[in-house]
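Task 17 of the worksheet. Students: predict the tertiary structure of the chain below and write it out as structure tokens. Keep your answer in the requested format; marks are given for formatting as well as content.
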Amino acid sequence: MKNNKRLGFLFLGLLLYVGACSEKTSNENKSSEVKTYQKAPEFSADSAYAYIQQQVDFGPRVPNTEPHRLTGDWIIEKLEGFGLTVTEQAFEDQAYDGKVFQLRNIIASYKPEASKRILLGAHWDTRRIADKDTQDLDVPIDGANDGGSGVAVLLEIARVLHADTLQPNVGIDFIFFDGEDDGEPDHRNFRDNSQIWWCLGSQYWSKTPHVKGYSAYYGILVDMVGGKNARFYKEGYSVQYAKNIVDKVWSQAHHLGFGDFFQMRNAEAITDDHLFVNQNANIPMINIIEYSPDFGFGLYHHTHKDNMDIIDKKTLSVVGQTVLFTLFQE
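Model answer:
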């Protein structure tokens, strides 16, 4: 009996030793795990900058004007040239002061046959007043950053997808929303709280999508993404409706070395196109937008300073590469 008991203790000790070694090996394996990423093509800031310049050269893209019409036709021409399937969604809507706008959302699809889809959005119209300026308040603004930069980032991503041999594993829908930037100014007596006068295009599309029953895995809106010294914070509605997507995009931006631009801080909620995509279309969509929790919008916002002088290729590169990289991780 003594011998058997001793053998039992030896056997138990051996089991404990083997278990400890196994646990140690498992922990070492976990600590050595490194997240792998798929390679993505290069985003060209020079190309995106040229797309902004072209829009500004057309003139302010105010609905019902010739520059607005010419810009819309140009966007469609570029998208079709990139081999995308393009849909125009024409509609009529009323502004805060009773003015009736003829508007059109422009939708372009990459791999329209793919079931898993990512939605990329930007607005292509510009503001008809410079209500935050000190002079020429009733003169339309260039909208180089507010409108122009988001359009340019989407066009450059579309161009890269068309030209590069590397291809993502998902379908992508590009939506250029119209009528985003004509909301009522705070200092005038036009306010009617029964209706939101901003984001007319996304309000319309989110209730009547270009494809019945349209759905996407998630969406990314880019707005004011080309300014010098821009910093991007986690916008409130984005965190509320799609926190996991915010965290994923910000994490990937940091992986790319863009941590100075993509700040790990929350900012307040902003009424922008993504809000209505979330609320009405039930698609989790985030907003990459220059808005500081400390200072608010940049000093150029809704002024004549929103011109080519404030556009920075580095900012365009950071945002464009982050969004492009994100698409290739799906």
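Marker's comment: The chain is about 40% helix and 15% strand. Residues 45-184+195-328 form a domain with the Aminopeptidase fold (CATH 3.40.630.10).
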